[in-house]
Design brief:
By secondary structure, the chain is mostly helical. The chain has helices spanning about 1-25, 30-55, 60-85, 90-100, 100-140, 145-150, 155-165, 175-185, 185-200, 205-230, 235-245, 250-260, 265-290. The longest helix is centred in the middle third of the chain and has 41 residues, at about 100-140.
């Protein structure tokens, strides 16, 4: 079991460490360009090729999507109550509590822990989470719903196209499949390296608030996912992926939105860093639990 845990965790930590050391030594890294490349090309490619190629029933993907929606809204309700009691602004901190890092960390961990089936289910969770983050998340941070923000998310179109191919049992032309698979290959390594870069660049502001947000994000995600898995009858890979994705640290996108809408970005940046560090420390226990 120990060797299995190391084989799952070490690739993620090593790739993130490469990014951290790269930034620490002052080497150039265009984070904005890489982020745009990953989100507009890499992620849509990995979503499409994974959903089309992997032998996972649409029913399973639909159940995972439903569980994701339920998890986000339950965490939203709990987080809102917690912030009210804590007397902290919902606009500033609620997105950080309910939207985990399902891409940079969740996808590679699911792939390493559960193989192609786990990656497909993790992609379903990730895609729904991204859609909700660019609608509900933006609405909370900005105080208004932005349909345009959602329409600019390429992953949404990759999902729709993949579902068309899958439901009609249409084969993807070999030249297209090879190209998309080739492009999808750079996605996960660059995600992890960029995560390491972000950990070095982000500064921890307001340590007390940041650590509380981090602990709520991780603890709430685990408890809600565990309860949902039991309630929905999830077992095996389905249960493991749901718990894994829901227990990921604060997503970097939360900081980007906080900075854009000026909702205490320093505190959110601190939560990104601290929750990720705590998550790395707790990963052996989490992976052991879900396997």
């Amino acid at each position: 079991m120990f060797e299995q845990l190391i084989s799952i965790i070490s690739p993620v930590m090593i790739c993130a460490a490469i990014g951290y050391i790269w930034a620490r030594t002052g080497r150039p890294y265009d984070t904005e360009m890489i982020t745009h490349l990953v989100t507009t090309v890499g992620v849509p490619c990995i979503v499409f090729i994974t959903l089309v190629n992997v032998d996972v029933e649409l029913d399973a993907l639909g159940r995972m999507a439903g569980a994701t929606i339920a998890a986000v809204f339950i965490m939203g309700a709990i987080g809102a109550v917690a912030l009210k009691v804590w007397r902290q602004p919902i606009r500033a901190f609620l997105p950080a509590m309910i939207f985990p890092n399902t891409g940079n960390m969740g996808l590679p961990l699911a792939m390493l822990a559960f193989g192609s089936e786990g990656l497909a289910l993790a992609v379903a969770y990730f895609t729904v989470c991204i859609i909700l983050q660019f609608t509900v998340g933006v609405a909370v941070s900005a105080g208004a719903i932005s349909v345009q923000a959602l329409l600019r998310v390429p992953t949404l179109y990759a999902l729709a196209l993949a579902l068309i191919f899958k439901t009609t049992n249409t084969a993807v032309p070999l030249w297209a499949a090879n190209t998309i698979e080739l492009l999808s290959g750079f996605t996960i390594p660059l995600m992890l390296i960029t995560l390491g870069i972000s950990l070095q660049q982000f500064k921890i502001g307001y340590f007390g608030k940041s650590i509380i947000i981090s602990l709520i994000r991780l603890g709430m995600g685990f408890v809600v996912a565990l309860a949902l898995a039991e309630a929905m009858g999830f077992e095996g890979v389905m249960k493991g992926v749901l718990i894994l994705q829901s227990t990921m640290p604060v997503a970097v996108f939360n900081y980007l939105f906080a900075a854009r809408y000026k909702t205490e970005p320093e505190t959110v940046a601190g939560a990104v860093v601290l929750s990720t560090v705590i998550s790395f420390i707790a990963l052996p226990v989490l992976i052991w639990f879900i396997l």
